Amino acid sequence: MGLSQVLTAAGQTRWLDVGCGAEFSPGFDYLDILPVGTLSDELQGRYHRADIANLTERDVEQLGIYDLVRMQHTFEHFGFEDGLRVLQNCAAILNPGGVILISVPDLVTHVQALLNGYEGLPWFKEWAHNRIPDDAPPSAYFSVFTHSLAYEPHLWCYDYDGLAYQLERTKQFTAITKLERTDLLAEVPFTHNRPDEDLCVYARRIQAPTG
């Protein structure tokens, strides 16, 4: 079973998509900083306008507690220090045993692409032409990856070790695992929404101490 089915079977059905942008996946509540007025009445009922890096106590109370917090190509838009605070805030709205699921563009994939002239990521090369000419050298494509577009820059780059390190620093997560595309829990697009580029990492909120 994929991750969504495993969570549903376990009765863990309260899911929050952080940094959803304008993509509203079924089954989720949503958190972003888009103007709420641009959403339908139905979506406004499930949409929370807040900055995950700067959640207030009131934000946490209004959000409640979730079984899954998902960030798909969101975490890389925070710098290193803010990224730690984002994860701490995610822990604050997760049930003990709840899941955090983070997908980011994989630094290792892009380093390998740089060394291979970006021939292995043709779709990325096409997308990068929003900023650079068709005949730009591979280093220019790598620079687009590391900085992204001017209006939504990538502020940090992660491989598995770096993302696991950030999760470990919170002291709030356990079972930190790289979710490969071939893993039984992997689903497109639930876990990997850009399969050729994704690094997808899964972890569980630590259980509260007993006794």
UniProtKB/TrEMBL annotation:
GO molecular function per UniProt: methyltransferase activity
Keywords from the UniProt entry: Methyltransferase, Transferase
Pfam families assigned: Methyltransf_23
Annotated InterPro entries: SAM-dependent_MTases_sf
Biological process per Gene Ontology, one example term: methylation
This protein's name: Methyltransferase family protein
